């Protein structure tokens, strides 16, 4: 999840040249690309971008929400969970979309103008080290059990590095709390739903997505992959957008060139001069890659629309959070085969799901 790790990955098949060109099919509303910088907070950037689009889709204003407010408010819960699991739970900077949704449900949200996280260029390496050191000291010395004031030094570190969360702020000449601002932006946590696809769990039932960054053990409804793709396509075609979590470690993923593909020739390691044939859909292979740790939970991004290449193949227009310095000003085109194999889970508005699927899931 950390950009400073991903920057050292191979640039991919397209580092020198990309033979692909794209025609937009569906382009839903999205706010400008931002940069998570030297942090592992893609989960907040992707989901906040998704919610900024949701505000516009519902008829609200174009608004720049604070990603760091969600990070700041969820840290104490992550630390508490780590201690209660006796150090056997995740403590890194990562998370998933449901963490943002839970934060908004419980703590509201704020605009970027009210909370920047004490920086415009974010670097959480020192914060990460301090939190890890303090939390492990609390665990090893059993201070968590002995002293009910254990959270105070944690809060002090968070306030020092990220800033004190605002209780009241101004937005468009109105005074708000984080809760009243959330309500004014018409964001309701209960309207959002997570979907995933893994064959080792029952279909159409909620399952805990088994990846390390799911530190809060959030559940996602488990669908056959064909139905998850159908739900994604239907959502985008109806004007909704999608928060995506998946693997970006394949050689065919090149942020620099703005293309993510999965060649059928898995040995291909040099920049192709023509469009390549991609892997056909195979749920068994998808599951096997997950279990072999070839498909892992690396990164979250925001899918905002669809496009076709010059041969008519379909792609997802995907907004990244690594700044605008690539071929498509921060966006990339993810092929359907890449989506099929490399998706861990997605988040959507429940109204994006068709009535048949909603009935299967028991959500009305």
Write the layout of secondary structure elements.
Blueprint: H1 3-6, E1 22-27, H2 42-57, H3 67-84, H4 97-107, H5 125-140, H6 143-146, H7 151-162, E2 169-171, E3 174-176, H8 178-184, E4 192-196, E5 206-208, E6 219-222, H9 225-237, E7 242-246, E8 253-254, E9 259-260, H10 283-291, E10 299-309, E11 314-319, E12 331-335, H11 336-342, E13 343-349, H12 355-361
Parallel strand pairs: 4-6, 9-12
Antiparallel strand pairs: 1-10, 2-3, 4-13, 5-6, 7-10, 7-13, 8-9, 10-11, 11-12
Helix pairs in contact: 2-4, 3-4, 3-7, 5-7
Helix content: 25-40%
Q: What's the gyration radius in Å?
A: 20 Å
CATH class: Alpha Beta
CATH architecture: Alpha-Beta Complex
Secondary-structure-based class equals alpha+beta
Overall pLDDT metric: 92
